[in-house]
Inverse folding.
């Protein structure tokens, strides 16, 4: 939840946080809800459409800002760890080197669709776009067209048209997680069979890319001793105004003028990270980026709007001039950043955009075909002129040495009693590398479960005698499902054990020039003979000369015909491996997780008597 004014109606995206609030905050919340209702009522009284839109935009933003502040203040301080948001930048000598890697590491995959009338295209980026690993610098990507195998060029259109009879290129409606995915749609003619093989296929995708690389990034490491102090490095300065348990208030400034070519591009130069006493990074829960003075100014502007009967260009110009004059006086920027956990140290980083470099590139990317499973014998090359590291690998591989105690500690228990005839208790845990190597040969053993009533003090009482069909235990999914229709008494507790599975993993390190039989490097591709190294038992990670793990681009399983070379897998990496780590599951143990769970009460009024 990052809130910055002035906000536009389309630009507001608040993940509102839930939690208990103090009596004082409850009163403020009631007042806020009352004022929200009054504001909505006042909007109905405005007849001029332009004035109504302007008042709704600014007034709604101010109310959302206040609601966000309330929710951030009352959110319980629960520790949650994340990754270093700057890890990717630390692998490259300059910000521009990171930009070059981003630009040159982009390629396009063709994906099979469920329909003969659709072909999906997936742009593959060298860096993830989900937080905290989102690309750090301002960037824009605009797709323009696709060239087909018959040399026809189909122009991109922002949405699929039902009335367009031709081939179309538009955003994919089936991929919400990858907003850059595209779909080539072929015309559908009722009653006419389509010959998919004779359709013109996409061979290249055209577009434009623009990325702004700051001149540098500088980090200030701060603690409570720095409160009230201004730290400076050349044209960059940071003042720590306050450091509370789970939030920090910061002022920052860049005294150098922005590069002219940046123009009016929105820039967010601030990256704030926090660690607790363990030295691990805390995840952010949100930020407020306006001072009380700024909020007061926008409230004054809103009051002026509400005094108008109609909107005029002169009035709009007056508001714009007042806003520019006000912002010109705000020589320093402010941010109040909240974290999930108690803060011990703060890392405040600033991107130095004066002297920035703007990279613009016309893209003409070939469409590549790499199916997850193929019967092709030939190994396709996929060598990209970039090196990208996997900063999550070290954390992920800790699961290779997971202990029984750690496995049990990570279990969480949830319940569902919405349907009393199929109430559920579910045991789950965060997925780790251990889960990846469990294979499929499970021996869950016995899963004894007993239900109990409770006594007058709410404590566990007598066991309930039940028919076998009253409940079902699924040890592989970690669920207990029970039907209260078949219970002679209302259960209050369930006691028993649920199996967990723990792999014993053996790690080995091998030099790329001395690989064992069954492993072969072809450039940046690792070829694995799956008869020697079965997929359910083995995993492979690659490093280069820096000692960092290389990020895997993709993997393909080649299941050749009986007369062919056999079954093998190919793993492609961003960079040249010089060392491999092999991880083999040598054993699989069943760990019994003993539990006593107090059951949530279900609404049994509609159950069969």
């Amino acid at each position: 939840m990052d809130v910055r004014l002035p906000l536009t109606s389309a630009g507001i995206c608040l993940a509102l946080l839930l939690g208990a609030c103090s009596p004082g905050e409850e009163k403020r919340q009631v007042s806020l809800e009352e004022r929200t209702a009054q504001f909505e009522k006042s909007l109905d009284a405005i007849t001029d459409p332009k004035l109504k839109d302007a008042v709704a935009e600014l007034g709604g933003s101010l109310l959302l800002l206040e609601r966000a502040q309330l929710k951030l203040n009352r959110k319980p301080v629960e520790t949650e760890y994340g990754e270093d948001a700057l890890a990717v930048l630390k692998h490259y000598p300059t910000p521009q080197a990171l930009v070059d890697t981003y630009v040159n590491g982009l390629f396009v995959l063709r994906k099979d669709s469920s329909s003969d009338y659709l072909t999906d295209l997936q742009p593959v980026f060298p860096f993830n776009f989900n937080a905290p690993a989102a690309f750090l610098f301002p960037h824009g990507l605009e797709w323009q067209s696709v060239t087909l195998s018959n040399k026809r060029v189909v122009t991109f259109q922002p949405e699929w048209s039902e009335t367009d009879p031709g081939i179309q290129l538009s955003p994919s409606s089936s991929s919400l997680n990858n907003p850059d995915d595209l779909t080539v749609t072929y015309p559908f003619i009722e009653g006419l069979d389509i010959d998919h093989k004779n359709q013109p296929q996409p061979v290249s995708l055209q577009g434009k890319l623009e990325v702004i690389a700051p001149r540098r990034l500088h980090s200030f490491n701060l603690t409570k001793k720095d409160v009230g102090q201004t730290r400076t490095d050349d044209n960059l300065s940071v003042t720590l105004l306050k450091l509370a348990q789970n939030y920090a208030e910061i002022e920052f400034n860049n005294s150098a003028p922005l590069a002219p070519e940046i123009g009016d591009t929105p820039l967010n130069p601030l990256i704030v990270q926090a660690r607790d006493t363990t030295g691990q990074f805390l995840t952010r829960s949100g930020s407020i980026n306006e001072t009380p003075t700024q909020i007061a100014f926008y409230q004054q502007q809103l009051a002026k709007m509400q005094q108008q009967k109609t909107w005029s260009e002169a009035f709009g110009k007056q508001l714009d001039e007042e806003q520019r004059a006000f912002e010109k006086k705000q020589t320093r920027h402010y941010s109040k950043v909240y974290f999930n956990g108690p803060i011990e140290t703060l890392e405040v980083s600033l991107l130095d955009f004066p002297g920035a470099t703007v990279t613009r590139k016309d893209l003409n990317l070939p469409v590549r075909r790499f199916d997850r499973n193929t019967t092709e014998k030939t190994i396709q090359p996929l060598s990209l002129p970039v090196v990208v590291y996997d900063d999550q690998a070290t954390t992920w591989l800790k699961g290779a040495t997971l202990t029984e105690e750690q496995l049990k500690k990570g279990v969480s228990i949830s319940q569902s009693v919405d349907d009393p005839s199929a109430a559920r208790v579910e045991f789950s845990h965060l997925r780790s590398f251990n889960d990846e190597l469990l294979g499929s040969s499970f021996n869950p053993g016995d899963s004894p479960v007993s239900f109990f009533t409770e006594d007058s003090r709410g404590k566990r009482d007598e066991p309930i005698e039940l028919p076998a069909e009253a409940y079902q235990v699924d040890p592989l999914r970690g669920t207990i499902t029970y039907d209260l229709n078949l219970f002679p008494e209302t259960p209050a507790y369930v006691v028993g054990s649920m199996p967990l599975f723990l792999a014993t993993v053996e790690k080995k390190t091998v030099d790329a020039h001395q690989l064992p039989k069954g492993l072969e490097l072809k450039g940046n591709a690792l070829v694995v003979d799956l008869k020697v190294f079965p997929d359910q038992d083995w995993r492979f990670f690659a490093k280069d000369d820096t000692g960092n793990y290389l990020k895997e681009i993709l993997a393909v399983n080649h299941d050749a015909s009986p007369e062919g070379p056999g079954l093998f897998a190919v793993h492609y990496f961003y960079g040249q491996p010089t060392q491999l780590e092999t991880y083999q599951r040598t054993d699989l143990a069943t760990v019994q997780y003993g539990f006593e769970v107090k059951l949530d009460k279900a609404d049994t009024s509609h159950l069969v008597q």
